[in-house]
Amino acid sequence: MKTFFKVFFGILFSCAILALAAFGIAGGADFLFSIVSSNEASVNNASDEKKPVILLDPGHGGMDGGAVGIGGICEKDLNLDLAKKLAEKLTQEGITVILTRDTDTLLTYEGASSAKNGDLRARLKMAEESEDCLFISLHMNKFSDSSVKGITLYHSPNNPEGLKLAEAIMAKVKENLQPENKRPIKAADSSLYILHRITRPAVLVECGFLSNAYEAALLADDGYRDRLAELLKDAIVGYIVASSQ
Ligand SMILES: [Zn+2]
Fold first, then answer.
1. Cα 61 to averaged position of ligand 1 atoms, centre (Å)
2. What is the pLDDT of residue 70?
3. Whole-angstrom distance between the N-terminal and C-terminal Cα of the chain?
4. 64 CA distance to ligand 1 middle (Å)
5. Is 7 exposed, middle or buried (0-12, 13-18, 19+ CB in 10 A)?
6. What's the 161 CA to ligand 1 centre distance in angstroms?
7. Using CB atoms within 10 A as the burial measure, which of 3, 7, 128, 211 is most buried?
8. pTM of the model
């Protein structure tokens, strides 16, 4: 009898091991499937002809520093650093990125009424000459009331895709960074020279207020800018994949 029980429980034990192994393989297969599924949402599945070029525009430069924040941090430098971080992440996703500037400079335009006017006209010309591009301008905000904070998005009124891209970005902002953000997405008025005139899908991201002590400290932090760049990359990739289907 003892031998019988040994054999019986031995068989039972082996069955249990086999069942667990089968479950494990099935679980593993599910896991593999989820990896494949998430890859299917990558931008590489968007067909090439539908994959736009990203024209990334770090605001200001050279003699135009933009907003100066608490502690003397300069908007133009933060915009450029953020743009470079975002460009690298988008490039890793197989997206072609062109920067309107990659150094501390203003662009020039022949016949412009001023250096600033020439810079804006040159950036607008770059966008209008890029046939299939998304124009994304990066800025930092400043306001007299230092309690005001939060990411603010503007879109071009001339192309409905700009609003869709802005909505994709704001959704990621609320999901991953600022769940309390209630700042409305606005159509650019004439005070935003490029966005008001551009015919390409375009957004302007005001990444936060340098006049707010809390947000200025965040924006001055390299790790926070990296997180912001990651969030923007995810939103842009999500928008491209959704619009290519
Ligand atoms: Zn600015």
1. 10
2. 83
3. 67
4. 9
5. exposed
6. 22
7. 211
8. 0.81
